[in-house]
Amino acid sequence: MKKLQLRIEDIKALPSVYQQFYNEISHDIPDDRIIADPLRRIAYGTDGSFYRLIPKLVIKAKTCKEITKLMEVAAKLKVPVTFRAAGTSLSGQAISDSILIYLYGNWSNCAVQEDGDIIKLEPGVIGAEANRKLIKYSKKIGPDPASINHAMIGGIAANNASGMCCGIADNSYKTVVHMKIIFWDGTILDTSSQESIQAFQSKHADLIKEIERIRDEILADIALKEQITHKFKIKNTTGYSINAFVDFYDPIDIIKHLMIGSEGTLGFIAEISYRTVREFEHRASALVVFPDIEQACKGVMRLERDFVSAAELMDRSSLRSVENVEGMPPYLKDLNPKASALLIEVTGDSHQELQQRIDQVKQALSEIKTELPIEFTDKKPEYQKLWNIRKGLFPAVGAMRKIGTTVIIEDVAFPMENLAESILALQDLFEKHGYHEAIIFGHALDSNVHFVFTQDFGIDAEVERYDLFMQEVCDLVADKYGGSLKAEHGTGRNMAPFVEKEWGKKAYEMMVRIKSAFDPLAIINPGVIINDNPNAHLEHLKPLPAVHEIIDKCIECGFCEVNCPSQNLTTTPRQRITTRRMIARLKSREGKLSDSDKQMLERLQADYTYMGNQTCAVDGLCSTTCPVGINTGSHTKVLRSYTVGRLGNRTSKLTANNFKKTTSMIGVGLATVNRIHSLVGTTTMGGITRATRRVSGDRIPLWSPWMPQKAKSIDSSIQKLDIKQSSKKVVYYPSCISRTMGPAKGDIDQRSIPEVTLSVLNKAGFEVIIPEDRDNLCCGVPYESKGFFEEADAKSSELEKHLLKYSNNGEIPVLCDTSPCTFRMQRVMGDNLKIYEPVEFIHDHLLEHLDIEPVDETIAVHVTCSSIKMNLGPKFSAIAKACAKEAIFPEKVRCCGFSGDKGFTTPELNASALATLKDSLEGRCTSGYSNSRTCEIGLSHHGEISYQSILYLIDRCAKAK
Questions:
Q1: What sort of enzyme, by top EC class, is this (predicted)?
Q2: Are 816 and 841 in contact (CB under 8 A)?
Q3: What is the pLDDT of residues 299-323, one digit of tens each?
Q4: What is the spatial order of strands in the sheet that 268-275 belongs to?
Q5: DSSP secondary structure of 68-123
Q6: Where are the domains of the chain?
Q7: Which fold has domain 282-460+471-489?
Q8: Helix (H, G, I), strand (E, B) or coil at 589
């Protein structure tokens, strides 16, 4: 895999202490995991909050040994460090202007223990991945934040994240069993090991004594003890978890629980074991609409966790923000101006228990006026629609905001008895300070509410307005109602100046002592939780300048990153947008830039060519998890269209206008390469091509043993397949890829895709119509991906005309054998044609006409990015289940990163995306299946087994009925 080179001039440009830091760690951390270039330092300088700091160095640490070394050097040089997992945090906890330690690679171990009662996790495990491991035990981890599909365990524990169902009973604080911690001096404490505990107690006797002193002082102070107990009866993540001194006596137990919610300011959580909680099989939901917020809050007060799993409050502004979104219930538009709603979920072990709990809810709310009858549904598609209302609130505000403004989501909790009046008071503050678009929603069972509004931080007067508003919010929450200024999002930089306001002087002094005891040099994530700067919440605010309409709505939450094939190679979608914004800011001042800023702009633009453009797979999977649906790949295509140049335009037009000759030349090239391969052998061929590519400066495409042979020409005489006047007809359009690229030398089945497709259709009794002039046709994908939009649209328009002709104006379905091509065809021709790719056509039209005898083996299956966007995952699973004893869908493999020809021209992208593939197959598979020929080349190469179209699998298993 190609590695980005660390430039010594970037190290020399750093302050001397950071140069020394680099010199100290460079023997233990390889240069390709030390980031000093401006572009990636800017890229890593953002998290999900509205703050930005640019680190001096980013270190990708892979092991506890490396973390220990980094902490020892940081302590020696007194250099601050900050730990970073997924970076979805909302209060500025995961950014630094010093050393940012990023969890990279080997932090995803997950071990289920005691028949599912305990799960041991490393900090790089995504929350949802942990829950997938627990499915077969009917268990889950307690914390269930809205970001669970993206947030990692390290952040979930360090922020004491909770969510809709866990409340305060099942959060990390209540469910932690053991923990492995690395402290400021590199010492490791494993609370599951008595030997480790004894060694730690001996080495850190001063810390143990200070913990005992603080504990004894709190227990002796009745008023302080009662204050702590009272404040943690509701959700509270403001400051440290000092309830540990009340709930536990043993110093090790106190240390373990202080780490929960410490936001990386006391040490590094290298491993955590949770006690799991029940995951019920049966569930039902109801959207209960009340006349106003007061009635909704009265309703909440009658609900209990004994029979309700979740109750999400939504004010009228919340409901209004999503009422025009597709799929929302039409009655949302007709609600009265003050109406509010509770989205209630109940769960049970059986249908009978579920019904009992539904009845309990209806009985509890029987005396509260509602706008509509209370109707629960236990049908998954129906209750998912209801939950889409709740999930759509935050993105709805993000999508509607004025470009350049930031979406802010705040997070407070009130005593339950004050919930209604406190929310009304919050709404009054919105009006007073001009936040008319603000919405309120939240976890009502815990009297925990979020409020979302937009803010422009580019204008001083707007920053002042925000400050005045937040000061009054703090007065309302902390002083008037004694609530929590941060209920589940963590203190961060955002609320650090207000910790003492909420807790009072005595409790705050205890927190300062905790920080000092754990971090005597004040080098671990300074400025977070404990911060003497009263204006910290107003500094280092993140600018969001306009760049391009495709990406301007990005809120930099990081939800896109989990899908990105380049995430461990160069940059992610969020990071691409962050750096484009920096480039845009510099370019906007182009005539007034200092010499250093000019150099910075030139460097960023030059580095972005590779880090942002060339290594973007343009797969669009980022849009599937983006709250506002941004496809960063589309933006990359636009950038490519700006830089193709005159020669590129000429070449694209020439190939598009002579497409048959173009594909013919590719076929000749493949045939020539294959002949040479046969003559010299795989080892020699690999050595020659690697050397040639290296000498050419990577301009010559990479060869692999799985390079396809030239495809056989389709015999037009077999297109009717001896079927006369069949009632089942299909127009089969073989993609240009399958017409050009045949099987590789090592593929199990040496037939071409068109041969196999025709065989399957024949068995199912379909009359097949193949366009006779197909060799000149293309859907436009190769042109679109490189930014040649005019040629892409011209080719797709040409293809559409031919397909309309052969399908009798759309009457006959069209089958294309390649998923990415089909996705574009559906997108640009879908209104006029019924277009299918192999998986959907097999599932919907072929299986019923075939007798399937499954193969007695374990197969590998790769769902392509285009298939994911077409929601074909379930149909892939159904076909695999019908055709094989067992199928492996590697969890960590998403887009393969081959991206048309990137597997040849930028093979490191493909290698990075598929780094876990071989291990995921566990040596149990001899064949793999997908639905994109180019993807299958990369999958075969890195999985070291033959991957072919899923049509081959069907043909293996199917007989005509």
A1: oxidoreductase
A2: no
A3: 999 999 999 999 999 999 999 999 9
A4: 110-113, 118-121, 268-275, 176-182, 188-190
A5: HHHHHHHHHHT--EEEESS---SSS-S--SSEEEEE-SS---EEEEGGGTEEEE-T
A6: 110-276, 282-460+471-489, 545-643
A7: Vanillyl-alcohol Oxidase; Chain A, domain 3 (3.40.462)
A8: coil
